Known about the structure:
The chain is 40% helix and 17% strand. By secondary structure, it is of the alpha/beta class. It is found in: Vacuole membrane.
Amino acid sequence: MSTDSFKKRTLLAVLADEDTVTGLLLAGVGQITTTPGKEKNFLTIDAKVTDEEIEAAFEQFTTRDDIAILLINQHIAERIRWKVDAFTAAFPAILEIPSKDHPYDPEKDSILRRVRRLFGE
């Protein structure tokens, strides 16, 4: 990857529940454009959103060249765990975060599991 491709990566993407997305949008991470394939950098997940829609959004966010970090609620990552675990690229970095109703469980975090394997734990 060239240095120029790193400079393009300026956005956070969010796959999360309504409370988390609202908080992050209020913090200023949201972007909405008319560029095809890059219309917005967030998806609010509720009970009506299917696993296939979550997978499609995950795929879209992880293939975009302007996203540096993908924040995903851990309970949502569990719904597409096979996809999250299979993602090995350096960018975007995938960070599993807690939500108001679902506390963080380090045993489920795929990145933390990889780090533990590297250190032989």
